[in-house]
């Protein structure tokens, strides 16, 4: 092996490492962004579920009150 072959191999390995590093960083950023958006959607969904639960309780109470009024 001569010195020229070793230098070319090292340069090639360096560029390969750099390509993998940049690709990994972009992929990590994309996954992080998508996870953040998913968390926002889950929070919004949970808010709707909580509101519906309170609404159902209110409707149930109103129905009970209506039944009491009808029986009087």
Chain-wise SSE layout:
Elements: H1 3-71
Q: What would you say this structure looks like, in words?
A:
The chain is mainly α. The protein is built from one helix and no strands. It has one helix at residues 3-71. The termini are far apart.
For this entry, give a set of tags.
96% helix; rod-shaped; mainly alpha; 72 residues
Summarize the structure.
The chain is mainly alpha-helical.
Query: How helical, in percent, are the residues?
Result: over 70%
Mean pLDDT, to the nearest integer, reads 94
Question: Would you report the number of β strands?
Answer: 0
Tell me, what's the shape? rod-shaped
- By secondary-structure content and strand pairing, the structural class works out as mainly alpha
Distance N to C terminus? 104 Å
Our Rg estimate from Cα atoms comes to 31 Å
